[in-house]
Amino acid sequence: MKHSAYSSKLLTIEVLTLLLALLFLVPFYFLFVNSFKTFAELLTNTASLPTKLNWDNYIRAWNVLHFPRALSNSIIITISSVSSMVIIASMAAYRLARRSNRMNRALFTLFITAMVVPFQAIMIPLVKVGNWLHFLNSFYGIVLCYAGLGVSFSLFLYHGFIKSIPPEIEESAVVDGCNPYAVFWRIIFPLLKPMTVTVIVLQSLWIWNDFLLPLLVLQDKGLQTVQLATNALFGQYTKQWDLALAALVMGIVPILLFFLFMQRHIMEGITAGAVKG
After folding, report:
1. Total domains, the chain
2. Span 229-254, average pLDDT
């Protein structure tokens, strides 16, 4: 009787979870289905399947938005920003975790505190400082902004993971003649692979889908990301939904494939980082 009751309860939870998942998939259904419709059909039959697959929306969006250029800009910004976060946060977290003195504990607290500050509270000073330092309308400027905004969360994840690594491994390497940099890059950093993958996936999703920071920093059309290029289809008097939906699908597909390929590492890294901390 206890086993039967447990099974019924589990079945109910699974059904509710499935219904909730379907609820979250509804916007993707409307996005994908309507991207193949003409503008007139999109307005009259929004929820229905398209009468025919209209690939012209994708072709026109590809040409109008100069999509290859926008896609390459998003890729360059994402890869450069995430690489900077991984290098800076992993090294800083290793130092703060292994040298637990008063100053390092204060620095770690400062990094954690920075995580709770909303971006909207600092975006105006950020633009003013960026204009003063002349890093607006440049790749290195927006990469610097992303690295500064994302390093706190990355450091927090790395810090918990590093505390779960036995210090005896490093002591053995020092006995064998490794200097501090060799200990980190040859011994510690390879052990951080699960957390590194987690940081890469989470931060890539954030940077790829971000709209506000590129809008503030990148005013040059030649530097626009996929999100900024798609926003050009929405004007004050016209909204080209047929092209916009096709552009959104093309912008989602790369990061979606990347996430599906890397997702199995996410929970592994987060769980491993929570062992100690």
Report:
1. 1
2. 83
The per-type count for the chain, helices as H runs and strands as E runs, is 15, 0
Cα–Cα distance between 277 and 164 in angstroms, integer?
Answer: 8
The answer as to whether 252 is a domain residue is yes
Tokens representing residue 255 in the block: 């990061």
Please state the pTM of the whole predicted model: 0.85
Q: Could you give the CA distance from residue 43 to residue 46 in angstroms, rounded to a whole number?
A: 6
In a domain, 121, yes or no: yes
Longest Cα separation, the chain: 74
CA dist list (Å): 137 to 35, 73, 89, 234: 31, 12, 26, 22
Element (H, E) at 245: helix 241-262
Domain that holds residue 254: 67-273
* Domain contains 83: yes
Q: How confident is the model at residue 268 (pLDDT cuts 50, 70, 90)?
A: low
47 backbone dihedrals φ, ψ, rounded to 5°? -90, -15
Q: Is the pLDDT of residue 221 over 70?
A: yes
Residue 200: closest CA among 150, 238, 136, 250: 150
- Sign of the dihedral through C-alpha 59, 61, 65, 71: negative
Q: What type of residue sits at position 188?
A: I
Rounded distance between C-alpha atoms, residue 65 and residue 117, angstroms: 34
Tens digits of per-residue pLDDT, 167-209? 888 888 888 778 888 888 988 999 898 889 989 998 999 999 9
Instruction: Name every residue whose Cβ is closer than 8 Å to that of residue 51 and which is 6 or more positions away in sequence.
Output: 41
